[in-house]
Design a protein that fits this description.
single chain; about 290 residues
Length: about 290
Amino acid sequence: MMVDSQAISLASDIFVVVYHGHVAAIKLGAHDQVIEEKLFELPTGQIGKQRDVDCAIRVPNTNVILVLGNMEVIPVHIEYNNPGFYYEYGDPTLYYFSPLDLRPSITVDGNRFAILFTDNDYFTRLMTGTIDVESLTVTMTTDNIVIEEQTVYSISYIQHSVLGLVYAVNMNGTFIQSALGFESVDETGKYSITLKETSEIECLHSISFLEMGSWGRFDKGNSNVIVTFITDDESDGLIIRHMRYEKVTQSFLLGPRMNNKNSGVSDIDTHGVHHLSILMMENNKFMVGKTEKN
């Protein structure tokens, strides 16, 4: 059984599936049939245990993926050389030490990445780093507390050096706060992040699941963002909200709201849902997916 599996496309005919302790690389033929596949193990975690996988993401325009698990970031280079797959790992890099479930959300822009997670004090923490795809080396660069409480959250690069964040606020999580993170680097090469809270999205009920995505990696001039969420009241259905980053005012402008409570996938029972994801595609398209417990 694949636990916490995630599929990542490296080319139109090559994709990988990352899951608990493993990576499966698959090559497709002209008719989408599998013509070659290879299964390999991720480096073991602490004390030799099979590595957990929290999430994984591709470094844009490369054959490198970043895998988060066991509090570490692992760069993995995967190449198809006809015939056969070649793969190489970089050294795992600890980004935070904790006995808790960090619940990380990761985003990548060029050689920069950012991780939003729950720390040991149950604060929501933002850390950023740099990936060298040639040496497969990860370097952590900044560390900031976003909000001093545990919450539901998501993160995405909107433009180069501009991060978008969303997180539920209040004891009952009844509204979503959006924020912007502006990256800068000084003459010594030291990075820093300036955080600025901006628009709020009001909700009738507390937030159970929350995801954010942008089209920035497809179109650097596209400042549009999609936020999708589910509340703990199943009658709300799946809610999608459009936002746009305004560079001059350094803020988010709220756009249209849509929900699907009257559609074919209405009456979502959040007690049965255990995953929500958003896939950003080219030409201003996106998909929202959820999985449910049997």
